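pasting for ref
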Amino acid sequence: LAGLARPAAGRVNQAGGVALHGVDVVSYAAEGRPRGGSATFGLVHGGAAWHFASEAHRARFAAGPDAFLPRFGGFCAFGVAEGYLVDVDPEAWDIVEGRLYLNFSLAVRRRWRRDIPGNIRRAEANWPRLMAG
């Protein structure tokens, strides 16, 4: 996989201080698709600015961010399972047991889906080391 991302403070996948390319993380669960967010409906959480498509989405996030935050700081879940931090394509996602997982690309998501439980176990084992930097 190419496209290594530079981990930021708090290990949130961000560029220029904006998490996840400005995608509204609430939209995945609320609308079943990623939707672009706006700084107008933004807030700072975990050292990054999170953008939302509406005031209602921002309010839902603010009331319970853990319900919407992508696992592994929004880095590619398959990459974390393999032991490294990689950026994501917001279109390559899955919600598994209520948690949002993102992947580098649709092709990588296909690989991720071959063994989601095993990939999650490996990623969970690798995440503390990757968080520590």
